[in-house]
Amino acid sequence: MRKSGSGGLVYSTESGRMCPGCRQPVAACVCGKPQRPAGDGVGRVSREKAGRGGKTVTVLRGLALEDAELVALGQKLRAACGTGGTVKEGVVELQGDHAEKVVAWLLAQGHRAKRSGG
Ligand SMILES: [Zn+2]
Question: Which of 5, 28, 33, 86, CA to CA, is 20 to 30 A from 77?
């Protein structure tokens, strides 16, 4: 039976130390682990067609960033490219073809990045 406390580590008679964040045994703690496949840290920038309308979008994948960091990065990229876009499930999408600019911008910000695909 688990006992939950307020703050600090929580103990369980069966599992020993429990993580206060995720309420899992420390050995099975999932805190800080990404819920999606982690990027390898190299941003891959590709130009793709979005939806059936076939509008060109610039897609960035592969950066090893937390979602919040990626959202912030997406905002800066939209401003840098003067376009709109979205960030979802670890993928930054910008409207229009900005692939070269995105790669250059990422490199200038100290990220690793390269063109991918078309
Ligand atoms: Zn945890």
Answer: 33
